[in-house]
Amino acid sequence: MITFYRAVGILFNIIEVLILVRIIFSWLRIGPYNPIGRIVYELTEPVLAPAKGLIDKIGINTGMFDFSPIVAILILRAILAVLRTIIF
Predict the structure, then answer these.
(1) What is the structure's pLDDT at 61?
(2) Has residue 18 got a pLDDT over 90?
(3) Is 55 in contact with 62 (CB distance < 8 Å)?
(4) How far apart are CA 72 and CA 16, in angstroms?
(5) What pLDDT does 16 receive?
(6) How confident is the model at residue 72 (pLDDT cuts 50, 70, 90)?
(7) Could you tell me which residues come within 8 angstroms of residue 51 by beta carbon, excluding any fewer than 6 positions away?
(8) Backbone phi, then psi, for 60, in 5-degree steps?
(9) What pLDDT does 63 receive?
(10) CA distance 16 to 77
(11) Nearest to 39 by CA among 27, 50, 30
(12) For residues 34 and 57, what is the distance between their CA atoms, to the nearest angstrom?
């Protein structure tokens, strides 16, 4: 069970790094049409889309800022914390 927790932890860390890379790409204006940008976009969109939907459902108007990466990372860390309490 500990190996499962470690594997999920590594997966979540990779997803968090990819989210940070996507943020940096947005600052550098590297869009999803770039081959590397496309890979990062396709790997992070399944995690960021629900976070965007959650922000929209709550009705938070974020203006020109996109807080979905922060929400997605917080959700991933919350899931990992719940797994830690269940396993240990």
Answers:
(1) 82
(2) yes
(3) yes
(4) 9
(5) 98
(6) very high
(7) 68, 69, 71, 72, 75
(8) -80, 125
(9) 82
(10) 10
(11) 30
(12) 31
Q: pTM for this one?
A: 0.90
| Residue for token pair 């999920």 | 8
Residue in the structure block whose two tokens are 């939907």: 53
Q: Amino acid letter at 62?
A: T
Q: Which position has the token pair 């990819």?
A: 18
Q: Which amino acid is at 80?
A: L
Q: What Rg value do the Cα atoms of the chain yield, rounded? A: 15
Please classify residue 22 by burial: count the beta carbons closer than 10 Å to its beta carbon, then call 0-12 exposed, 13-18 middle and 19+ buried.
buried
Residue type, 46: P
51 burial type by CB count under 10 A (0-12 exposed, 13-18 middle, 19+ buried): buried
Q: What's the pLDDT tens digit per position in 27-66?
A: 999 988 999 999 999 999 999 999 999 999 998 887 888 8
Tokens read off for 33: 């049409």
